[in-house]
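FIELD: query
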Amino acid sequence: MLITRQGLKQAHLKLAELQTTVIEHGKEVAELYNGAGDQWHDNPEWLRATQHREALQRQAIHLEGEIHLATEFIEDMGFDYTVVHPGAEVTIRFVNAPNSVTYVILGPLESDPDNNVISAEAPLAIEMMGKQAGDRCHLDSRPFDIVSIVRWTGLDVKVEEE
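FIELD: result
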């Protein structure tokens, strides 16, 4: 899976945060268990805390697996940004739309749709891959034009090794 060095660092930080939270919730579950005596399984607080801890554990396990799959850095791929590739900042304009929209295409761990950072595996990114500025594409039958493609400046951020 493709990722940026900064994205991998952020994923490791998020995993450490999740693991710490799981430990803290484990302490809470233990306290509720110890305080409930023989009735621990009937305690709704214990049940909620246990379910929340299990959800956090699943998130941590999933993220750890995704990190393990992140083996190729986008920065090292040597992509030609005259066409759309991961690591590109792509400006598009839907036909008959007054404004253009700019997206950054990164790996799935780094996607943040609320900030126009989309996964290279997202339908919009897949539709644009390999296309050039001026090409027409379609998303759900809606035509749009690729206005410009540049290498995303975030690829040039130096990440300190730990």
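FIELD: remark
The longest strand covers residues 142-151.
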